[in-house]
Design goal:
Number of strands: 0
Order of helices and strands: HHHHHHHH
Oligomer: single chain
Distance between the termini: 6 Å
Structural class: mainly alpha
Strand content: under 5%
Number of helices: 8
C-alpha cells in the first residue's frame, strides 16, 4: 500500500495504515458469512478512524457489495491477495524475495496446487481495476515486500515453520489473510 500511495498522490501513512489494519479481525472472526471484516469495520468506526480507511476495508471484501471507487480502495484489493501469494512464493526460494521476478511469480501462478486457495483471476482483476499492467504490478509488490523482507520473513521462518494460523505459507486459509 505504501509503495503505491505516491503513484496515486495518496497519503503514504494513511495507505500504509489501511493495509496494516484491513484484516485486523481475520484471525478471530474468519467466517466470511458473519465475521471478517464486519468486526474490523465496527471497531475502526468506533475508534474514529478516517472514513476513507473504513470504506477501503469494506470494499476489499467483494461479498459486502461495496464498490471500489478510490485509488486506495482499488489498491488494497489489488495488493491484498497478491502480497500473500508473493510471500508464499518467497518461502520456497532459498533467497526468499531477493531477486524474485514477475516471471517467477507468474510461473507459480500456473501451478494450481501451489497456494491453491488463491483465486488467480482475482489477482489479475486487481491489477486491471487499478489500471496497471500485471507484470508491472507484480514488480511493484515484489519490490515493496523485498524492502521489508527482514520484518516479513524472519531468518527462522520458512515453509516448515508454524505461522500460528494453521495456513502455512501456502495461503490455504480462506484467501483473505495476506499482508497488504
Amino acid at each position: 500500500m505504501r509503495a503505491y500511495a505516491p503513484r496515486f498522490d495518496g497519503d503514504v501513512e494513511l495507505w500504509g495504515l489501511t493495509g496494516l489494519l484491513h484484516d485486523l479481525d481475520y484471525e478471530r472472526y474468519p467466517n466470511l458469512e458473519d465475521g471478517h471484516p464486519r468486526y474490523a469495520l465496527r471497531e475502526l468506526e468506533a475508534r474514529g478512524y478516517p472514513p476513507e480507511l473504513v470504506r477501503a476495508v469494506a470494499s476489499h471484501a467483494d461479498f459486502l457489495g461495496v464498490s471500489r471507487d478510490s485509488p486506495m480502495e482499488k489498491t488494497l484489493f489489488a495488493v491484498d491477495e497478491l502480497s500473500g501469494f508473493v510471500l508464499a512464493c518467497a518461502y520456497v526460494r532459498p533467497e526468499r524475495l531477493q531477486g524474485m521476478t514477475a516471471k517467477s511469480v507468474k510461473k507459480k501462478l500456473k501451478q494450481p496446487s501451489f497456494a491453491a486457495a488463491v483465486d488467480r483471476e482475482e489477482l489479475r482483476q486487481g491489477a486491471d481495476e487499478l489500471g496497471v499492467d500485471f507484470d508491472e504490478h507484480l514488480t511493484i509488490v515484489i519490490g515493496a515486500l523485498a524492502e521489508k523482507q527482514a520484518e516479513l520473513m524472519p531468518a527462522d521462518s520458512g515453509p516448515d515453520s508454524d505461522l500460528g494460523d494453521g495456513s502455512g505459507p501456502s495461503g490455504s486459509d480462506s484467501g483473505d489473510g495476506g499482508p497488504a
